[in-house]
Amino acid sequence: MATRRGFLAGMLATGLIPKPGWADAGGPSWLAAARLPGGAYNLVGLTGDGAELFRLPLPGRGHAAAAHPHRPEAVAFARRPGTFAIVLDCAAGGIEAVLDAPEGRHFYGHGAFSGDGRLLFTSENDFEAARGVIGLWDAARGYRRIGEFASGGVGPHDICLLPGGDALAVANGGIETRPASGRAKLNIPFMRPNLSYLDLDGQLIDVVEPEPEHRRNSIRHLALRGDGLIAYAMQWQGGGTDSPPLLGLHRRGAAPRLLAAPEAAHRRMAGYAGSVAFSGDGGQVAITSPRGGLAQLFDVRDGTLAALVERPDICGISPDADGFVYSTGTGTVGFTRRRAAAAQGHDLAWDNHLVRIPQAA
């Protein structure tokens, strides 16, 4: 007579037992790092209404997370220039793996999975050589590091997988840093940011650089529309009275488009775009400024300013239905196209980003 163990082993071998998915973690819509009132840090899962679903502890301040496309796993990254990345089981609540940055490296707070979920790509700094690196990790076999390639620039921050799954877009901020110097920016007079496109073997496909007068406009964060259009958010390092655009749109092989609000609203951003997202229907694109307490929503088609959202310390933003969901350092999770009562207040200080769960898209 077959034993229960043998029966289950046979079911697993034939793939008849369903594998855990995001529904097993309660079906979260977004992930966000946060600071608790006592000073500890967590990764938090949020429902589609902005309510808290789970909290998972982090060893330090988190920045963003990468959500596995199929399994209820999230890789929570340390804030730059941190050296930890933790793979969390969002269903069981445990730690699946710990990724340690190789010697001479630090993470930049972001990562992306391949379409099938077998590989994880991480943005890293090879600070001895002052070059950006994309690390490759085997997510199908315990997150072993299996390789790396150049990011196409200095200071790679955000990274995303393009539609079709055969290329990456990388926001190379252009800023040189070292862990021993904390968050000090070491090469501002010579910085050279870019938006690079790489195939999955690390070959450079395309690159976009700011005009010379805007070369101190650090390209930091990315948003991707389903048709391949990239939005990139920038942070001005030039000081003075200059106030260049903080939002760009780009499609591979084409010229970039720069978007900016009218002068008075634009200057309220204080030269700093903290996050960027397309609306759920793709018709709008938004950037946030925690320094200015402001989100700006633009019409993608003609580049005009469509709306302003004024909230103290607003930074996280992500697609929601045909609009956006946002988060603030004062604990609010709100929505741009829902009734005001839909906003949720939390006893948390949300960090910079709201990460959309792939299966919730």
Number of strands: 29
The secondary structure category is mainly beta
Tally the helices: 2
How much helicity do the residues have? under 10%
Rg calc: 20 Å
pLDDT < 50 runs, ≥5 residues: none
Oligomer: single chain
Largest sheet: 5 strands, antiparallel
State the end-to-end distance.
46 Å
Strand fraction equals over 45%
Shape estimate: globular
**If you average the pLDDT, what whole number results?**
90
What does this structure look like?
This protein has 361 residues and is mainly beta. Helix content is 4%, strand content 46%. The chain is built from two helices and 29 strands. The strands form seven sheets. Strands 1, 2, 3, 28 and 29 form a five-stranded antiparallel β-sheet that branches. Strands 4-5-6-7 form a four-stranded antiparallel β-sheet, with no helix packed on it. Strands 8-9-10-11 form a four-stranded antiparallel β-sheet, with no helix packed on it. A hairpin with a 4-residue loop joins β14 and β15. The relative contact order is 0.11. The model has no long low-confidence stretch (mean pLDDT 90).
Give the secondary structure arrangement, pairings included.
Layout lengths: L3 H11 L15 E6 L5 E6 L5 E7 L3 E6 L5 E6 L5 E6 L5 E6 L4 E9 L5 E8 L4 E8 L5 E7 L5 E6 L5 E6 L21 E6 L4 E5 L8 E8 L5 E7 L10 E4 L6 E3 L3 H5 L7 E4 L5 E6 L4 E6 L5 E6 L3 E7 L2 E6 L3 E4 L8 E2 L3 E2 L4 E2 L5
Antiparallel strand pairs: 1-2, 1-28, 1-29, 2-3, 4-5, 5-6, 6-7, 8-9, 9-10, 10-11, 12-13, 13-14, 14-15, 16-17, 17-18, 18-19, 20-21, 21-22, 22-23, 24-25, 25-26, 26-27
